[in-house]
Amino acid sequence: MMGMKKSVIFLLIVLLGCAGTTTKDSTAQVSDFRVGTEGLSMSFVPNLPPPRLFGGEPFNAMIQIENKGTADFQPGSLFIYLSGFDPTIITGLYSTGQGLNEILRGRGPYMPKGDVSAVNFNGRIAALPVDKYNPTIMATACYEYTTTAGAQVCVDPNPYAPTSIQKVCTPSAVSLGSQGAPVAVTSVEVNPSPGVTRFTIHISNIGGSTVFKPGKLAECSPYGAGLTFNDVDFVQVVDVKISGSSIKNKCRPIDKDFIRLTNGVASLFCELPKESLRGEAAYLTPLNVVLKYGYRQSISTSLDIRPSYAIT
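RE: above sequence
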């Protein structure tokens, strides 16, 4: 009987230890998933296309795509195009590109990696009129993506109160870094005053490629009319919320929901009026920013195409 009691006690210790470990891991996942500077990652699958091809052969290319960010790709929100070649030599590849026909989910609290898929391009190499043809094949991705940023900020309705009054926080700048997307809210400055609290929200294109207005996917195509000056470097401000209430209408400069990036950066200036404050004491509260935009990025590979000489 004594041996059975010892076994039960040992089993309880093991179970409690495992439960504690699981809780810790889950918390780490929830707090860390909104990081990273990529939305989409793409690469040519090795040997598709092969580095050397011959006239008369099939042309097959496959682009592997992975959602590296935290937003989902919906059908119709992502197109990939191949360009950079003479269509009379590499034939059968359509200028309309290949669209995504499935949901490509991003990372989440309990999903450490986003979905992976592939896009295929099938054509043919025509008879070569020269001894060799060495094009650089470019794969261009045009897609729409969303950045969701959140931070805890200190709001002090009475910043000039006597120093003898204890406060739980002091308004200061908050660094956010990245949010698992190519456009990020990098930091938020908090400037308190007795009548209003002002926020300066800094936005940056950290992905290194081209930002454009959502709804302009057709113009993003290398075969389309092209993105104009009034399309590029615009981000849609979907909403700015403090304590769950929108203050977007108190933010400037926003022109028809859009803010323009200059040299890859922009700043939103928002106000929280006194009537929206929660009492007279300083307090921490969530600030949430949602941005939507189009994004264009590309990769390339070199080909060596030779004539197919018949052996007689």
